[in-house]
Amino acid sequence: MAEFETFWREDPAPLLRVEPGFVLADADPDATPGFGGRKRDAVGALAEGAEVLATLQEKFFADSTVGGTRSVLLVLQAMDTAGKGGIVKHVVGAVDPGGVHLHAFKAPTEEELAHDFLWRVRREVPLAGQIGVFDRSHYEDVLIGSVRKLAPDDVIAQRFHDIVAFEEELVANGTVIVKVMLHISSDEQKERLAARLERPDKHWKYNPGDVTERLLWNDYQAAYQRVFDKTSTTDAPWFVVPANRKWYARLAVQHLLIDALRSIDPQWPKPDYDVEHEKARLAAS
């Protein structure tokens, strides 16, 4: 199986990475950085990338069975309707689920509130050979925390410091962190919410609270900007992925995961037995 995609016009990772001076308001949620095709081209491209990702993930998991210690953590953050579920289903869903650890962070329980805000997060970090996926994450504690004034400014500031230290610890222990913010426009979100209300099979996905949060759109955009300014580091950078076109967002996140696994460069484990001898034994059995 191939271990490289052939359809990118330009490597999208550097185009999506948050660098010093990045301004979220200047990022175009309709853009398709690095991809020259259209929606009709994305179906085949996603399938090609899925084969690449699955091959690398199988090597990665296999290596962990003989002592490999590395892991990958995909952090997905976004405004409501941006497509996190689609990323989990269409991108992460293309690999062996036995090598994936998915956790969706909801409002903290009473038990979780009795501990440091990172307590519940540490319990869900991926083990060796796993691709961990956080559907929302520890960043909720600084996003909602600041927008909704759930914590004073000095506590939010300390949380930023704690998050950076936590991620430095993960990286030092062998985890490659891929932090993605799926970036949609306010108009696109409005259309997606309206579409849910028009379809009975999508009513379950609609939450009246989504409109309440939507009224704070500008506050959330400012909060995300602060997150990027404070926590996009060399070893754990943020990637802002335009997500008005769901098909592009899936291709981009798929590529970022492929890049993460390539950086680890997993190898097939060497057998601890004589292959030719086992072939002979099997033939004679």
TrEMBL record:
Gene3D superfamilies: P-loop containing nucleotide triphosphate hydrolases. Residues 50-264 form the Polyphosphate kinase-2-related domain. GO terms for molecular function: kinase activity. Keywords: Kinase, Transferase. Signal peptide: none annotated. It comes from the Bacteria. The keyword Transferase applies. InterPro entries: P-loop_NTPase, PPK2-rel_1, PPK2-related. This is PPK2 family polyphosphate kinase. It comes from Leifsonia stereocauli.
